[in-house]
Write a structure and sequence with these properties.
93% helix; single chain; mainly alpha; 2 helices
Length: 166
């Protein structure tokens, strides 16, 4: 088993070492700085991204707190508006009830006044009718009684006595 890779000779070993040295020199001169620069840039970019993410997280916390405050204020304002609307509705209903009650009372008072007026008017007409009827009856009675001279003198005498007695 004389495989040159397993048991290399001194010449192969020397050229492998020279090739490896040249490779290390080239990498050290141009490769490593670029790789280290890229790694540093990537590290910086990752660090900046993490910082930006942390900053965004803090901003989100602040925005969330502000949103909660705004939501709380909106709820308070909504409750206030609802309470005001409820009070306004109750006041409108109360005003309508009081106006309706006043209107009903005015109508009742007007009806009572009208009824009293009509009642007085009817009583006055009734008195006038009774007085006219009484006058007609008295006139008929007086005519019938005064047709006889003696009865007429008797009625006149009685009336004169009533006048003096009163």
């Amino acid at each position: 088993m004389n495989n040159p890779l397993i048991s290399p000779g001194i010449g192969v070993f020397f050229w492998m070492l020279v090739s490896f040295g040249i490779l290390v020199f080239i990498l050290a001169k141009w490769g490593w700085p670029m790789i280290l620069k890229a790694l540093n840039e990537r590290e910086t970019a990752i660090s900046d991204s993490l910082n930006a993410a942390e900053k965004a997280r803090e901003e989100m916390k602040l925005l969330k707190a502000e949103n909660l405050d705004l939501l709380r204020e909106a709820k308070i304002e909504r409750d206030e508006m609802l309470r005001t609307a409820r009070l306004t509705a109750e006041k409108i209903v109360e005003d309508a009830k009081s106006k309706a009650s006043e209107e009903a009372q005015r109508i009742v008072d007007s009806a009572r006044e009208s009824i009293n007026y009509e009642k007085l008017k009817a009583m006055h007409e009734l008195k006038n009718d009774v007085a006219n009827l009484s006058i007609e009856i008295a006139e008929k009675l007086v005519r019938s009684e005064l047709t006889d001279k003696e009865k007429a003198n008797d009625v006149i005498r009685r009336q004169l006595e009533n006048i003096h007695l009163s």
